[in-house]
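Annotated sample (chain length 427).
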Amino acid sequence: MIVNSFANGIHAIAKPTGSVCNLKCDYCFYLEKRNLYPTINNFQMSDEVLSAYIDKYVNSQPTPEVEFVWQGGEPTLLGIDFFRKVVDYQKPYRTLKKIKNSLQTNGTLLTDKWCAFLKTNNFLVGLSIDGPKEIHDRYRHSHDGGSRFKSVMKSLRLLQKHKVDFNVMACVAKETAYRPLDVYHFFKQEGVEFIQFTPIIERVPDQKAVSYGLNLAMPALLDTEEPNKRVTHWTVEPEKYADFLIAIFDEWVRHDVGKIFIMNFEWALNAAIGNGSPVCIFSQSCGRAVAVEQNGDVYACDHYVYPEYRLGNILYDDLGLMVDASFNSGFGRHKENTLPHMCKGCDVLRACWGGCPKHRFAQTDYGEPGVHYLCASYKKFFKYISKYLEAIIELMSSGRPASDIMKAVKITDNIDLTNIKNTKEVR
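Output written by the structure step:
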């Protein structure tokens, strides 16, 4: 997931190959979406759909900047020529808006030629790596079960060689959560500066999912008790996810502030400052982050690519109207309107806003539905880091760099900013 500002405008994720991928990662929630299109053989976005998507996305976007996010499946399967076409189609619109492109990839197909293109055209790349080889290979592998770790690491080096802007997206599955510092130190040693940790949460299929030919459960209903709470064997344990983030935070806040940027911590800082969330899962409402499939079908969210959440098709329908309908409908408002009473009185509500609705299948001790699977974990993490974030905000407000926090906490947790040298450098 590559994030954008959800406070304003529209955010769309394009799936130009649909769910087609050259890997078969155990925990991938999108691979099975192919079963929703049984009559399609060629999963490739056509020129007609591509042109309509670019035109309608630019013209529907109320903000001065439009970010095109290309995901999959694996979008690099389409080759460089497809993305050359993307850039060419976007050219006439660059006088109207500032246009940016982001590409999420598994990193198995990148070459010097690819990276030169990405650098020349200012693509931001999201590279999927879960950590060192034994962690990465646990759930990420080719269709025959083979390791692709060497290919991914080669791609990381190529991105660095060509100075392509990139971040790493690391999925936190059950086993990974027990090795936080192994993961963090690996990325640090490899020179990765921007990291996003994504918890893996999936449930075994319910009856409706099975009827669609799917292997994972449909999203939670929020306002109704969810009978199916059985998670997959790779799902992160709720109590361990907070421990994972806290262990890394403790290391980062003492040694790496201003040098390594961990999106999970940046989001929390953003919330503590009082800004709107830059990521949908921690936004107050849903409905402004849509997914566009290879045939032009538009869905309310890439985690909600199911027939019930199809909004229309980019070839025939107005994107702005589809997004407005999604935001103003039960889907968009449902996230906040169905928050349990426990959440509404929670002191970290503004940091999480209940989390992603797809994963709100737990319930309170009193049986109220709509609680996020990671509720206890989120609460523990946000409470733990709050005093550090308050200190960082105080530093930044006085014109000092956030990195000064390291001088205060390297030895002790008793944060004392009075003895830190007052510099005018701003992060």
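Annotation: Residues 1-6, 423-427 have pLDDT under 50 and may be disordered.
Annotation: The chain has one domain: 11-342.
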